[in-house]
Amino acid sequence: MVAIYARQSVDKKDSISVETQIEECKKKISLSEEYEIFIDKGFSGKSTERPDFQRMLLKVKNGEISKIVIYKYDRISRSMYDFVNMQKEFEKYNTHLVSVTENIDTTTTQGKAMVNILMTFAEMERETIQKRIKDNYYSRGEKGFYLGGYAPFGYNKVDTYKNGKKTYTFEEKPNESCILKQMYIDYVNGKSLSEIARELNDKNVPTRRKRPWNENCISRMLKSPVYVKANADIYNYLLSLGGTMTNPIEDYNGEYGCYVYGDVSKRKGSKFVDLSNDFVTLGMHKGIIDSDLWLSVQQIFSHKKGHSNLGTGSLTWLQGLVKCKCGYTFYAKRFRPNKNKKEYKYLYCRGRKNNSCPYPKIMMNVSVIESIAQEALFNRLKELKNIKQNEIIKQSPEINKLKIRLSETDNKISTLMNNLANGESITIEYINQFIKKLDTERKSILDNIAELELKSSKTSQSQFDIDDIIKNWDNYDIELKKSIAKNVIDVIILEGKNVDIKFF
The CATH number of the domain where 69 resides is what? Predict the structure, then answer.
């Protein structure tokens, strides 16, 4: 039996349709030959994992097909490696491969060489197209152009022009944006993701895709920077997640939302947890959520990610504070090698329970982490001894402007310091003078920020006597230690043997 195989990845005006391919292939078959048609529409030639191709291959292996007729050799595959392997497979089962448009005898050495040359060019073409598409995607993203897909909930998609080119942007949809704002407020006030989803479903609020609300949907919306009125704090937060920032910090004026884009195949974990392989750019749309509210939500997620039990364990006072880089919390577990050995307590990533953690397995002794954390905690408490502020400070536009100036000043100082190594004596003297001037300016900015924050914050008396805490720490029970630690430590990140402690 003869097999006719046709493949079309994308239906475009200038592409050869599967119908045309089949009609041309039929011309290569005599009236006396029986044939069966195999079609894969909407499948790329990058892989051979295509339904009808695999069905045809099974019949080849069963000895049912003696000849395969195709319109072009690249219909089999655009991968040189896959094509060569398929060619060997066909030869193994005495199946002859015939191309309608490429009159090459594949039974000869010269013919096989010619086909391999053709496939090399086909693979190069595929890679060139992919690179062109990817480069265009990144270029459009960097310029703030719309990157496709549905308009996020809370927005309508509207036509616009940028640099003379037509694109799209988002325009706030009032009846949805008020729902979105309430989501953020409810979550900060203690409602769970499931509670928010259930209330929206009970009110018959439609999602963008007309599907029921669920926890994952709510979570993505609460984490997405597309909604935030991005200011200097947002810039620094997204930068701290590893994002490559395509706009300078001075563009972050607290007005526009952000896009996050990048190579999905290189992404580690959740899109908004680790941005080390992603780009961040300012969009052309106005943000909906104030930066302080958005950051408050992210802080809650940083504690709750992946686990509902955020500190109720009794094995360590660090329960709920220690997290893996994947975003999941660690939990303490008892371990005894055998009955005659001493019992140990180890930390395990909860993400490994459901295979969500992409990082190497970590088993770290609890006592080791407690020792490191205790030393860091004591040092931090000493630093905070005379500080009375304990509330989140709402950032004013003046503070944001000062933080932008501070970042710019730090960058200038850093650049000048790098130039000192290669400078001549006169140049070095000039650079040192300029650094001193910038350092004075930096101190002035820091003083102004502190003054403004002090005015906008509420102060309270310290809950603990720091000297007593350090002195009596070993006498405290786990719950008291836990309470003290949670007032000072934001999160402890474990990565391999590295322990990164972040404070409020």
Answer: 3.40.50.1390
How buried is 286 (Cβ within 10 angstroms: 0-12 exposed, 13-18 middle, 19+ buried)? middle
Same domain membership, residue 486 and residue 363: yes
Comparing CA positions, the residue from 177, 157, 139 lying closest to residue 148 is 157
Tell me, yes or no, whether 185 and 326 share the same domain: no
Lowest mean pLDDT among 309-318, 396-405, 476-485: 309-318
Q: What is d(CA 237, CA 184) in angstroms, rounded to the nearest whole number?
A: 18
Provide the token pair at 342.
Answer: 């001493």
State whether 209 and 341 are in the same domain.
no
Q: Is residue 147 part of a domain?
A: no
Tell me, yes or no, whether 145 lies in a domain: no
285, 223: one domain: yes
Strand partners, 334: 345
Are both 174 and 314 inside the same structural domain?
Answer: no
385 phi, psi to nearest 5 deg? -55, -40
The pair of three-digit structure tokens given for residue 290, joined into one six-digit string: 């104030």
Q: Specify whether 365 is located in the same domain as 384.
A: yes
Per residue in 357-409, pLDDT (tens digit) is 778 887 778 888 899 999 999 988 888 765 544 433 444 677 777 778 887 77
What's the half-sphere exposure (Cβ side, CA atoms, 13 Å) at 81? 3
pTM for the complete prediction?
Answer: 0.42
Rounded CA gap, 157 and 170, in Å?
Answer: 5
* One domain, residues 295 and 368: no
357 lies in the same domain as 488: yes
Exposed, middle or buried, 469 (CB in 10 Å: 0-12/13-18/19+)? middle
Q: Give strand ranges (E) for 263-402.
A: 278-286, 322-324, 330-335, 344-349, 364-365
Helices (H), 276-424: 291-304, 366-383, 397-420
